[in-house]
Specification:
The chain is mainly β. The protein is 13% helix and 34% strand. It contains 5 helices and 22 strands. Strands 2, 3, 4, 9, 10, 12, 15, 16, 17 and 21 form a 10-stranded antiparallel β-sheet that branches. Strands 1, 7, 8, 11, 18, 19, 20 and 22 form an 8-stranded antiparallel β-sheet that branches. It is globular, with a radius of gyration of 26 Å.
């Protein structure tokens, strides 16, 4: 079809067609079909019909331009994410990839803990046992589904550990301006907390605030990143937008003067959080309904989203029951 002429001068004129159609009706039909096919193949027609030409995988549309949603209905949807674990003393692994080991034979690592929802997916008060060792980080057990939502879990098995998961996508801020999620704010004491990091695509995501980076042996937040979380330490407020602290309040999430005592006392309650780029040099953050802040900043032009479960010897100041964060209704749109 690429050889068919599509310029106005090359196509038969209306006068020529009218003169011929009385004697050659088949020619009129043939020309109409060929013209229609040529127009359908033009760039304008392709744009009108959608963005299917650049798709990766099935579905009929370019996944990079679709809204990303994960509600985990029927305990499905985990295949939309990458996931993994980092241990300061021992190594790291992305699920499905080889384990990277850097700890020596004297490195402190290993142990067992309990996580919310037993293996039959009972209530969050029921527990399952998880064990991490030098030989097996149990990476496939650290991010799991039950009761139509997603859990991350980690116990006190290393000096500093991070469980993470991330949509297997790169997002363009010209098309995507909002990231939202639900998560519990249960009081798991001071050494276990969650955070969501929106980082420039391809940059380091195993990062933390400046004063903790050396302790965790990981990098500092990227200056263009946006980070929202309830630590460090657990029950606090973390709101960092393009390297600037966006929270000027004094109240933590949990504790005597906490903003959400009901949520801090419950595993079942999940609060809704969101980050929205207003496309005017400001970003609005809804922090679980506890407060909303609009601060200077913007999403990176090309970004990835990482959901992280930080653990800094979480049993040192008491043992949290469950060692688990509960996530749901994740969307990038």
């Amino acid at each position: 079809m690429s050889s068919f002429p599509t310029t106005r001068s090359a196509l038969p004129t209306t006068r020529h067609i009218a003169a011929r159609k009385r004697h050659r009706p088949w020619l009129t039909l043939l020309i109409a079909v060929l013209v229609g096919l040529a127009l359908a193949a033009s760039p304008a027609a392709a744009e009108k019909g959608g963005k299917g030409g650049g798709k990766k995988g099935g579905g009929g549309n370019d996944p990079q331009s679709e809204v990303f949603t994960a509600g985990f209905t029927g305990n499905t949807g985990l295949d939309q994410f990458r996931s993994g674990v980092y241990h300061r003393n021992m190594g790291s692994q992305e699920l499905g990839q080889p384990t990277e080991i850097w700890g020596d034979s004297n490195a402190a690592h290993g142990g067992s803990w309990t996580a919310d929802h037993d293996l039959a997916c009972g209530t969050p008060d029921t527990q399952r046992s998880v064990t991490s060792s030098r030989e097996d980080f149990a990476t496939d057990q650290l991010v799991y589904l039950c009761r139509d939502h997603l859990m991350t879990t980690m116990g006190d098995v290393d000096g500093y550990s991070i469980v993470w998961f991330s949509p297997d996508r790169v997002f363009d801020s010209a098309e995507f301006s909002t990231v939202s999620w639900d998560v519990n704010v249960t009081d798991l004491l001071k050494r276990q907390w969650w955070e969501v990091s929106i980082v420039p695509a391809g940059t380091e995501f195993l990062a933390t605030t400046d004063w903790l980076a050396d302790v965790a042996n990981i990098g500092r937040y990227h200056p263009d990143a946006i980070v929202v979380g309830n630590g460090p330490f657990g029950g606090d407020v973390n709101l960092s937008v393009n390297g600037v602290d966006g929270y000027s309040g004094w109240q933590p999430v949990c504790g005597e003067w906490g903003m959400d005592p009901e949520g801090c006392a419950s595993k079942k309650i999940r609060r809704s959080f969101s980050v929205a780029d207003n496309n005017n040099g400001t970003v609005t953050v809804n922090f679980g309904g506890m407060f909303t802040r609009t601060v200077p900043g913007q999403l990176p032009s090309s970004f990835q989203v990482y959901f992280k479960d930080h653990n800094y010897t979480p049993d040192k100041d008491g043992q949290p029951i469950g060692h688990t964060w509960h996530w749901d209704n994740i969307a990038v749109g």
